[in-house]
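User: structure tokens for this one?
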Amino acid sequence: MTPVLTSAAGVTLIGGGAVTAADLAEALALAPTVAAADSGADRALADGIMPQAVIGDLDSLSTAGRAAIPPDRLHHVPEQETTDFEKCLTRIAAPFVVAVGFTGSRADHLLACLTTLVRVPRPCLLLGGEDAIFAAPARLALDLPPGTRLSLYPLGPVTGTSRGLRWPIDGLTLDPARRTGTSNETTGPVELALDGPCLVILPRAQAAAAIQAITSA
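Assistant:
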């Protein structure tokens, strides 16, 4: 897929769901370049931010938003086989993406985004509520303090090894229909080796550590 936005810095991707001022400030501190998924552009404009790219089927971008954004920054992708989130991730070339406005009130949208995280091989951190969520690479090292909440949520059968978890996963098979790895806890820096699709869920306070880990994997 040819990128429509290339950035040497991290990219904040704003979705059309609820985005708080704290969400946006935290994301921009980590990733200063801004892109938007469809009507996420309206939220960016409302905060005085002109996105570098607006990507999606553009069915929910307001008329005022469309008029305010330079035409060369609007990237209409009409196909309906993928979500706007996936359309964006596959068209952004950057060290990492921090996504906000994708964990709102609709469970189907959230589940689609979580599936996209493991299907699209891009370093991406999803911020929402109390959590920072990302797809685990095959090998992962996280510099976390003892007592940090760490959940592993498989999206298929997963086995692996761990160091630095209160409840190790060695010898277990994680599976979304049988056994998950939620509400584990760190005893110090963590090392994971996983052989299947799995999400890592951390407290938002560990967003920077998560980005360091996924960009170093």
